[in-house]
């Protein structure tokens, strides 16, 4: 199975007040934790973000082709850069992503006729940046960008999306309060094995 792994790090982190990707992580930065899980699942990892900002991290890094248009622009850059039909995309604010879940998503995507497989956590929250996007998604993404219809949830409604449920809350670190709560937890519980609902 040939798959590509991408971390979307092109946002302004305005609610956090500092770059979420460069918050302290278990290895070095949060983005390194996510990249390690992605690389273990796919064998490769590319950042989508400012190449100058992230040049010292040591990962291939591609810029958004339409800056200022949100994560949809990052998805476009990722899908335009890859020859793989299985593209695993993770936001840079999900430090607890575990390799076993990512592998499960990829295996499910390989067997699925859906062109997008997205994680849904135990609260019912959908995570469009913890997902596999197949190449068939690209024209829809580009049409939505052209029309400035930038909602990720709107994109999922337009795609043939399959939702993959997990039995806990998926962590998103978006604000200083989120970061304080996350930092206060025992770090070893952050990387517990993900159990998939079947």
Write a structural description:
With 198 residues, the protein is an alpha/beta fold. It has a single domain, classed as Spore Coat Polysaccharide Biosynthesis Protein SpsA, Chain A (Alpha-Beta Complex), CATH 3.90.550.10. Helix content is 33%, strand content 18%. The protein is built from seven helices and seven strands. It has a seven-stranded mixed β-sheet, sandwiched between helices. Strand 5 and strand 6 form a beta hairpin. Helix 1 packs across helix 3. The longest helix has 13 residues. The protein is globular and about 40 Å long. The two termini are 22 Å apart. The C terminus is likely disordered.
What is the N-to-C order of secondary-structure elements (H for helix, E for strand)? EHEEHEHEEHHEHH
Describe the main β-sheet briefly: 7 strands, mixed
CATH class: Alpha Beta
Structural class: alpha/beta
Across the major sheet, the strand order is 3-2-1-4-6-5-7
Q: Report the CATH topology name.
A: Spore Coat Polysaccharide Biosynthesis Protein SpsA, Chain A
Count of beta strands: 7
Name the CATH superfamily classification. Answer: Spore Coat Polysaccharide Biosynthesis Protein SpsA, Chain A
Number of domains: 1
Tally of contiguous helical segments: 7
Roughly how much helix do the residues carry, as a percent range?
A: 25-40%
How far the N terminus sits from the C terminus, by CA atoms, comes to 22 Å
Q: Would you tell me the overall average pLDDT? A: 85
Show unreliable segments.
Answer: 186-198
Which strand-content bin applies to the residues?
A: 15-25%
How big is the Rg?
16 Å
At CATH level 2, the architecture is Alpha-Beta Complex
Shape: globular
């Amino acid at each position: 199975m040939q798959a590509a792994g991408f971390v979307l790090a092109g946002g302004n982190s305005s609610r956090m007040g500092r770059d979420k990707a460069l918050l302290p992580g278990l290895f070095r930065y949060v983005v390194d934790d996510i990249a390690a899980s992605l690389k273990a699942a796919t064998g490769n990892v590319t950042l989508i973000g400012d190449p100058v900002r992230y040049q010292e991290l040591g990962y291939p890094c591609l810029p958004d082709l339409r800056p200022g248009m949100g994560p949809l622009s990052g998805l476009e850059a990722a899908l335009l850069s890859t020859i793989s039909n299985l593209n695993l995309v993770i936001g840079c604010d999900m430090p607890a992503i575990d390799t076993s879940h990512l592998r499960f998503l990829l295996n499910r995507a390989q067997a699925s006729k859906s062109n997008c497989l997205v994680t849904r956590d135990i609260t019912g929250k959908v995570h469009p940046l913890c997902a596999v996007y197949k190449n068939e998604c690209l024209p829809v993404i580009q049409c939505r960008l052209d029309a400035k219809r930038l909602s990720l949830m709107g994109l999922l409604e337009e795609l043939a999306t399959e939702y993959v449920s997990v039995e806990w809350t998926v962590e998103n670190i978006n604000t200083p309060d989120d970061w304080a709560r996350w930092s206060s937890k025992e770090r070893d519980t952050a990387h517990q094995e993900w159990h998939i609902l079947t």
